[in-house]
Amino acid sequence: MSARPSKRRIAIIGAGFTGSVLAAHLMRHADEPTSLHLIERTPSLGAGLAYSTPNAAHLLNVRAYNMSAYPDDPRHFLRWLWAQDGGTQDGGAGAVPPSGHAFVSRARYGAYIQDVLREAVAAAPPHVSLTVSQAEAVDIASDARGTRLRLGNGTSLSVDTAVLCIGNFAPSPPPVPAPEVYASSRYVASPWDWPALSTIASDTPVLILGTGLTMVDTVLSLEDKGHRGPIIALSRRGLLPQTHEETRPFKSFIHPQVMPRTVLDVMIALKADVRRARETGFDWRSAFDALRPYHHLIWSHLAPEERRRFLRHVRPYWEVHRHRIAPEVAARIAALRANGRLTIRAGRLQTLTPVPNGVEATVRARGAEGTVWTRTVGAIVNATGTECDFSRIAHPLVKALLTRGLARPDPLRLGLDVTMDGALIGEDGQVSDRLFALGPISRPPFWEMTAVPELRSQCAQAARHIARLRRSAYPPAEPSPLHARAMP
Ligand SMILES: Cc1cc2nc3c(=O)[nH]c(=O)nc-3n(C[C@H](O)[C@H](O)[C@H](O)COP(=O)(O)OP(=O)(O)OC[C@H]3O[C@@H](n4cnc5c(N)ncnc54)[C@H](O)[C@@H]3O)c2cc1C
After folding, report:
1. What are the pLDDT digits (tens) for 26-50?
2. Whose CA, among 168, 186, 237, 404, lies 20 to 30 Å from 2?
3. Which stretches make up the FAD-dependent urate hydroxylase HpyO/Asp monooxygenase CreE-like FAD/NAD(P)-binding domain (predicted)?
């Protein structure tokens, strides 16, 4: 009989913000001998999709004062910024004042998270170790005895607990049959594929599908590489993200003991807050932000049909007011619109047809019954938002989870079906005590589980919960040839 391993083994798959910050918290909270395995497919730790952009004009869409990795140390990021260089060297983003009211570059934030991880390793007690593997997790199996992971480099790993922190997925193609276009180099399937964006000819007309935050990033990327052709951004309603302005603390009408039960009640409460805010000299943003501590509670009180109603009718308006852009970014977008280089259109894409000099797009305009317009463009960028419907995600790890019945998409297709602790719910409805999912993929029970202020609290709570779990009786892995490296 094989001996039980002496240490608790926890695998964290994905080392973007969520995986890295979870690892940092687990190093603080693990009170029994623990070996943490951080598995990341890219060479960089801490950055993930959001913070690996090479463009310094891609700014955080949350002010620096609210971007600490630690909920119990809100000024941690600010201290890090000031320790670097007085907070002044930020690719043009300017100085970070004592208030922290500034939007610094996302790339810089990625460097911060890497330091968070590095500091956590340095401060870890001797009974906790962290091993980093640069590899892609491609398969997972789990039963009463434990969990096995297979990595793309052919190695495998047996652990007691596995936590999926695999982040955001690129959008699926639009619901318009155009296989020839999607297979061509004129179609950029992922708006975060910087090399593909850089191949777009600088004078060609571009159609961006989507008018949200990712469209804004795409326009800035095209601009900064010298693009001079016209850009059209299209979405059903043509709504642009609102601009940040300084907010002041404001007390919401909402009371934890009297939660609204319908979307209509939420909207009535929010509108009343906005009206009251205006009457007392506050901006609508203060009222909107005052609701933030209650988002999860409000969502948990809405029945499935009400949640569906919210997604169908309110979501687009909610997104543009909730996730706002930095004033300096908004100013660039406004200037491009004013000089006619960027046009925002509301409508529904009807067809995409390959033509000799590009792709002809046909769009039915919103509101104007029957009005259809056509443009020939040299490139199409899909910036319609991250794919959250896990039944449509083709990644092998996701497929393995679903086909083995270890996970299931939630009914509203917002992510994976998980408990409030992030425990995966299997196809049969069983809650796992060894498989967890955190970050945006765990959105279903919360709705807002996208930005750092929510994610950092989730990581802190999950670390405490996971640290308390008992070890499984899984036999130790045969000596694994895992290509691992210690933290730099
Ligand atoms: C473009 C963009 C900009 C954003 N800007 C902000 C912002 O300014 N402020 C804010 O608060 N929030 C922002 N967000 C929200 C964002 O969701 C979170 O801030 C955060 O980055 C999510 O972290 P994550 O670790 O869950 O995902 P990610 O950061 O995407 O990390 C997931 C990691 O998992 C790895 N991975 C995936 N699958 C595997 C696998 N099978 N094997 C091994 N590794 C794997 C990936 O390589 C990646 O490094 C932004 C999101 C995006 C997409």
Report:
1. 999 888 999 999 999 999 999 999 9
2. 404
3. 11-168
Which pLDDT does position 469 carry in this prediction? 82
Burial 182-212, CB ≥16 within 10 A → b, else e: beeebbbebbbeeebbeebeeebbbbbbbbb
Q: How far is the CA of 208 from the centre of ligand 1 (A)?
A: 22
Residue closest via CA to ligand 1's atom 42 equals 136
H-helix segments, 252-346? 263-279, 284-290, 295-300, 304-309, 315-322, 327-338
Per DSSP, 391 falls in state G
CA angle 311, 317, 323 (to 5 degrees): 100
Q: With 60 as the cut, is the pLDDT of residue 1 above it?
A: no
Q: Which of 11, 20, 77, 24 is nearest to 46 (CA)?
A: 20
320, 240 contact by CB (below 8 A): yes
Q: Ligand 1, atom 27: nearest CA belongs to which residue?
A: 167
For residue 401 the two structure tokens come to: 């989870």
**Which residues form the pocket of ligand 1, taking CB atoms under 6 Å from any ligand atom?**
13-19, 39-42, 48-50, 60-62, 106, 136-137, 165-168, 397, 439-440, 450-452, 455
> Are β-strands 342-355 and 231-235 bridged in parallel, bridged antiparallel, or unpaired?
parallel
What are the Cα distances from residue 430, in Å, to 164, 183, 418, 427, 437?
Answer: 18, 40, 10, 7, 15
- Which residue from 17, 61, 442, 457 has its CB within 8 A of the most atoms of ligand 1, so it is best to mutate? 17
Amino acid at position 188, single letter = V
| The overall pTM is greater than 0.85 | yes
Amino acid at 62: V
Cα dist from 175 to 22, 212, 313, whole Å: 36, 18, 20
pLDDT at 474 over 70: no
DSSP state of 243: B
SS3 177: coil
CA distances for 464 relative to 124, 257, 473, angstroms:
15, 27, 21
Atom of ligand 1 nearest to the CA of 192: 1
Give all domains of the chain, ordered by start, each with its CATH number: 8-58+105-169+388-468 (3.50.50.60), 179-242+325-382 (3.50.50.60), 263-322 (no CATH)
Q: How far is the CA of 107 from the centre of ligand 1 (A)?
A: 12
**d(CA 71, ligand 1 centre) in Å:** 19
Instruction: Output DSSP code: residue 294.
Output: G
Query: 165 is written with which tokens?
Result: 């922190």
Cα torsion angle, 413, 417, 419, 424, sign: negative
Q: How far is CA 73 from the centre of its chain?
A: 22
Nearest CA owner, ligand 1 atom 34: 14
User: How would residue 3 be classed by pLDDT, with cut points 50, 70 and 90?
Assistant: low
Residue 271 in tokens? 């509108």
